[in-house]
Amino acid sequence: MANKINYNKGKIPGDESGIELRYSVCDICTPGMHCGLTCYVKDEQIIKIEGTKEHPFNKGKLCTKGLGNRQYMNREDRILTPLKRVGERGEGKFEPISWDEAMDIVASKMLEAKEKYGPESVAFYVGYSKWFRFMLRRLAYAFGTPNFGTESSSCFTSGVMAWQLIAQEYMQQDMANTDLFIGWGTNSFFSRWPMVGGMEANKKRGMKVIIVDPRITPTTERIADLHLRPHLGTDGALALAIANVLIANDWVDKEFIDKYTYGYEKYAEYVKEFTPEKGEELTGVPAADIIKAAEMIHQSKSACITESSAPLGHHTNGMQNYRAMMSLLVITGNFDRKGGQRPLNHSFIEIDCGFPTKDHKFQYELFPEGTKPAVGAKEHPLWHALRNEMQANDLAFNILRQDEDSVRVLFGGGMNYRMFTQTENYIEAFKKLDFFVNVDLFMTDTCKWADIVLPACSSMERGEFKSYPGCFIWHTTPVVKPMAESKSDVDIYTMLANKLGLEDEYLCGGYEKCIEYVIEDLPVTVQQLKDAPHPFKLEGFAPYKFGSTLERGLKTPTGKLELCSKLIEDNPQWGLDALPTYKPPFNPDPEKYPILLCAGTRIPNALHTRLHEVPWERHLLPEPSVEMSMEDADEYGIELGDDVEVVTNIGSLTFKAIPTATVQKGEIYIYHGYRELDINSILDGTNLDPYSGFPAYRSAFCYIRRK
Ligand SMILES: Nc1nc2c(c(=O)[nH]1)N[C@H]1C(S)=C(S)[C@@H](COP(=O)(O)OP(=O)(O)OC[C@H]3O[C@@H](n4cnc5c(=O)[nH]c(N)nc54)[C@H](O)[C@@H]3O)O[C@H]1N2
Ligand SMILES: Nc1nc2c(c(=O)[nH]1)N[C@H]1C(S)=C(S)[C@@H](COP(=O)(O)OP(=O)(O)OC[C@H]3O[C@@H](n4cnc5c(=O)[nH]c(N)nc54)[C@H](O)[C@@H]3O)O[C@H]1N2
Ligand SMILES: [Mo]
Known about the structure:
30% of the residues lie in helices and 18% in strands. By secondary structure, it is of the alpha/beta class. The chain has four domains: 20-73, Phosphorylase Kinase, domain 1; 83-155 and 349-537, Rossmann fold; 171-343, Dimethylsulfoxide Reductase, domain 2 (3-Layer(aba) Sandwich); 595-706, Barwin-like endoglucanases. β17 (409-413), α17 and β18 form a beta-alpha-beta unit. The longest helix has 19 residues, at 99-117. The chain is globular and about 70 Å long. The mean pLDDT is 96. One ligand MGD binds next to α5.
């Protein structure tokens, strides 16, 4: 009898079906995740994707987004060739040109601007993609401009800056060893699924969890022992009120404070006004819960906090809120000790990989000294002092000013203007540029404003150096050929470096040469990494030694953990507060705008602008929606599916209503990145945190009405 198994239909790999398994990574979200992908390849096409069991990070699992990789790489708007604009800017009319011609144009426009206006007139901006940034940053600096900036002008860096002020470097939670884990604005089920497993496993060994979130989420329901529900953007007041209880009860680590901190007296004095009752008034969290949180910190041998990269930072008071929260760990001595907060143990692209790389040196050694300061330096002096790179939220304003400091030529590496607030400003700015080139996989609305569009390829169509926590290391190889004429971003940079005539053997030599530099001190070669089918563990690197940072001495201006920032004290002209003071989120007229709008809380089926056009993802939430409390829905007479107009000081848009018991009265939640209904188009572009320059995406002010 004939063999009835249809190997092809079952997508069963082997000689019978001609299906081969090849391995890559999903780079839809951040490199800190980049889950292993097993690709089923037949006739050089990927016919199926699943999580790689042998991959040390995702161990066979994939999230909603990762499972959409095949549809993602085959999006209908994939760019197939380099394109040159033939119509008006924004019209979207292009003609295909060769790579050589395209790169000649790009290089000549850059050199022309450099000659005419100086190197600072050329800016490089990178969207959420991170894997290639280390190379583009070096390229920007080798070219001579300090104007390299990224999406991190709105993400994560505000928290890093808060740690820089306190300890001079970023500090992360030691969840594996802690007694008490505080997830401050954490809903990992939607935004960072591998962390859920970590929380569940640590809870089994007795770890307690506090989650601070205005909403009810799977994390508050399934993980939290205590759920604190402040109003949006009031976290600073909550942290100060918890500090008040800790200090009033003498639940602080006096010895640690005396030995290692600066500014405690002033801080303790300031905190006095934030009694639990005052805390309740400012945040909506019951005083009893504020006291309970302080008790839990006191009763735990160790405590650590994950600060989240967005919910706290996306407010006008964001960075101060981060500082207030982090100060809780400082006064209780939960710093640089087991179960507390500790520095990264070596890093490549901000990943705590556990082995040393030359990532930092590679990126910064060519930094051009003596140039004009980077975009945003005047507007956000603290950002400038701590980051010394372009604050991209000032880019549109800088271009629109059209003065001697204005950027004239813009190179976008996956630039997507829909991530900024008051997006119309970016469109106006694009019109003013001498030249704009954008590299992307897809013909986005941003690409339509470019003069030259360059097609990038997906992670499955190229190779990439990878590192993962626990000393895991790898280099992927292409699973299939790049679609049409698309190329790996890094190959585009190599072409550009050569066309620009940069005298840099690494950039001109290509990605592998750059990686060889980065891993020079490691006992492996790039070829060995490529030969491995999966990431493997590099042996011989000691884990972080707790206490070693304090022993070595802190690199802050005072050499201590600063509860009061000496840098800010020494620069009164900035008009910033040296203490982690609390101000409510900015609202010019609370009577007119009684609703706080949180634009962007993550949903499982979208990643910013990338997946709304992917059918499997889109069908999970087909329409851009607004979530609101049942109380507000009743008050406004709104029912599920009704049209609700959201009105800000910039404009109004209409979304489908989802009344839900998970949201507090007076707050609404809308996801961002939709082409057809972009919430960022009606958020005020000047409503920024003066400390970090981050937009207040999550405490925007508005009113609503049923249509
Ligand atoms: N309202 C609101 N706005 C927000 C936020 C929010 O919470 N609310 N969050 C902010 C935060 S935290 C972030 S991180 C930003 C993210 O904002 P963006 O940086 O805009 O994020 P994406 O839409 O993921 O990606 C940008 C572009 O990169 C392209 N791309 C993807 N992969 C590659 C690649 O390999 N090479 C190249 N060249 N291009 C690629 C994508 O197609 C897309 O067009 O948004 C910010 N904006
Ligand atoms: N599915 C998916 N995952 C993503 C992304 C995505 O677009 N989609 N983006 C990635 C990126 S770039 C980032 S930056 C991260 C962000 O990752 P997270 O910070 O974890 O994600 P969010 O869902 O934005 O926020 C987490 C929780 O914070 C709460 N929150 C909102 N505002 C406040 C506030 O003012 N105070 C407090 N205490 N809590 C608040 C929200 O209700 C939410 O439940 O997600 C990453 N992961
Ligand atoms: Mo982000």
